[in-house]
Design brief:
By secondary structure, this protein is an all-beta fold. The chain is about 0% helix and about 45% strand. It is built from no helices and ten strands.
Length: about 110
């Protein structure tokens, strides 16, 4: 498995939106997830998606605001983030969902600030 590469982060005002992307050589039949790590905090799962894309999971704090999706033909997953708040500021990563993970990519920084 090639290293994943995340993109799409940036600086956005509170209430704004961003769409993150994550690409790799091959996602295959893996459940995938977006994670984030804020300064001084543990890395946490934000959202996950099954191999077919039929089932998704969201942590409570992002439910109704974030949407995870995947395009298996493009080996890419996405995270649409709406109504962002300062609490969403973090470095965002994608990886396999669960305890077995690939090498972490560089992540993409999301900063929500007025």
């Amino acid at each position: 498995q090639d290293q994943v590469v995340e993109s799409g982060g940036g600086l956005v005002q509170p209430g704004g939106s961003l769409r993150l992307s994550c690409a790799a050589g091959w996602f295959g039949g893996y459940a995938l997830a977006w994670y984030r790590q804020a300064p001084g905090k543990e890395r946490e799962v934000v959202a996950s998606i099954t191999p077919s894309g039929g089932t998704t999971y969201y942590r409570d704090s992002v439910k109704g605001r974030f949407t995870i999706s995947r395009d298996n033909h493009k080996n890419t997953i996405y995270l649409q983030m709406n109504n962002l708040s300062s609490e969403d500021t973090a470095l965002y990563y994608c990886n396999r969902d669960g305890s077995i993970r690939w090498t972490w990519g560089p992540g993409t920084q999301v900063t929500v600030s007025a």
